[in-house]
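Here is one chain, start to finish.
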Amino acid sequence: MTTVTSIWSPLRQPAFRGLWICGAIFFIGAGMQTMAAAWLMVELTGSSFLAALVQTAVFLPMFLLALPAGVLADTTDRRRLISGALIAQVAACTLLALLVLGGWGGPGSVLFLVFVCGCCTAVLT
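Its structure:
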């Protein structure tokens, strides 16, 4: 007798379902932040090159930090690591928002803080 399992069966587990939903919300928000940063860069400079550099600032940390982040995830308390990365990312995003709303955010600060957010995402994945 064979049992048929659904692709949705892992979502019956409350812990996995919560983790999956929170991860989905996080990555949707991160995508929105990346798009908004690229749009802001175009508004600030009018340069399509700098807008593309925003994408590089987001994804380059994932390339550079994949192995070190994996080692860090295996050798430290994951709950503290995730909490620390999320707190750092919220701080970077808040600082970026305050700088832009205050009129002090330039292309350099946008790229740097987006890079910091990319580093936090690299540690999370």
